[in-house]
Amino acid sequence: MAKLVVVTAEPNGRRPKSTRRWPKAGLLLLGIIIFLLLVLTDSAPVADALPAPTAQQVSAGRDAILQLRASRSGVGGVNEVRLGADHLEALSALATHGFRPDRLDLFVFDSVLYVHASHKLPFGRWVNVVAETPGGGDGFPSLRMKIGSVPLSPYASRLLISTLRAGMGLTGAEIPALDDLVRQLVVQEDRLAITINLPNKMGVLDGVLGAQNNVNPTLVVEAYCRLARAQKLSPQTDFAMQVRRAFPADHTAQATSESNSAAFVALAMAIVDKRVGSLAGVNASQLDACQMPEIPIMLHGRHDLSKHWALSAALSVGSGTQISEAMGEWKELADSLTKQSKFQPGDPTGFSFVDISADRSGFRTADAASNEALAGKMAARLARVTQNEILPRSLLSLEEGPAVDFAQKYGSLEDPRFTEAIRNINSVLDQEGLLRP
């Protein structure tokens, strides 16, 4: 017979000590969490609220990024990158605009490099990180950091960065030891020179916001190989045909946000460059058996529009709609510069609202198709899409070319004249494009 065990109170009527300790431990843990939130976060951001980047800043930022990319092809991957005040302002503006509401502010003052970064949390709180270093010496520079109201010594700051580096290694990144990553940092009055060793494989950093993408690489490879096989059997230059192949009619009944997202990345790999697959973590070796024939794919007789649409759609599902929208606008701002710009040599193509229309159609379509509630409906539309639905022909008459003086006519990306132009583009896409009712 089973015995009934009865737990009684202690003789004095109190509960057992082990039971009494739990509420106290819970309250202590809650107190620690609240304390950490208060000391590690603030009620306001420390980084400045920067305006949207100008055309000059976009091109200065691109120049800085090109220098960083070049370091990968230097001897042993090592190269010296020189950044002036205009580069730092540009990188700050691009990061703040692309990842808003988060903010970044890089600047040099009195030969000291400052980094102010702010990340927004719920309930009006901000994680603020302030770092400063005078540079000098060989290896990773000594720096002081402050997180919220907690200052860190140079030793603690280095330990924290080393821990973050180790964590990135778990994502597939191959980050060298700190002193090998940064060989030297020289900070002068208003500029800096950094000798850096960027690895060829940076894990999630190789995707613009790879840490947040949820695109299935297996489905991407399957969709890309399907496109490559179809193009080999029946070469087509019509972009609408390529979209229909990416969303075959016999698959629409089973379409999900996951399968649609994979199809957009595969389409951009086929139309733009296979390296777009990095947004989903696709390895080049996975594509050895699938080679897309190099045939220009046209949208309304232009191969640039098909690339704008496809890449914007892929960026939307792989990096987020906001960064996709921002990158399209940045590209057009850079193209609007005259050839006299020191950051834009040669003869730029000029600002184009037609290109922006293709960008917006791409990322807005992908945003809708990656919504689970709309996945089937959008896949069915894409399976029978026409060029005019992809980009309504009426938008082809919008302003574009070197003669468009963007700064004089539209001011900036935050100017009411520009935002009105974007509203008009959205209206046409909503009424005549893939997002129509």
Descriptive overview:
The protein has about 425 residues and is of the alpha+beta class. It folds into two domains: about 150 residues, no CATH class; about 220 residues, no CATH class. The chain is built from 15 helices and eleven strands. The strands form three sheets. Strands 2-3-4-6-7 form a five-stranded antiparallel β-sheet. A hairpin with a 5-residue loop joins β3 and β4. α2 packs across α10 and α8 packs antiparallel against α9. The longest helix has 24 residues. The N terminus is likely disordered.
Which short descriptors sum up this protein?
alpha+beta; 5-stranded antiparallel beta sheet; 11 strands
Q: How do the strands and helices of this protein lay out in sequence?
A:
Blueprint (H helix, E strand, L loop, with lengths): L16 H24 L14 H17 L6 E7 H14 L4 E7 L2 E9 L5 E8 L1 E4 L5 E4 L2 E3 L1 H16 L8 H4 E6 L3 E7 L19 H17 L5 H8 L10 H15 L31 H17 L1 H15 L15 E2 H17 L5 H8 L4 H4 L9 E2 L4 H5 L5 H17 L5
Antiparallel strand pairs: 1-9, 2-3, 3-4, 4-6, 5-8, 6-7, 8-9, 10-11
Helix pairs in contact: 2-3, 2-10, 6-8, 8-9, 9-10, 9-11, 10-11
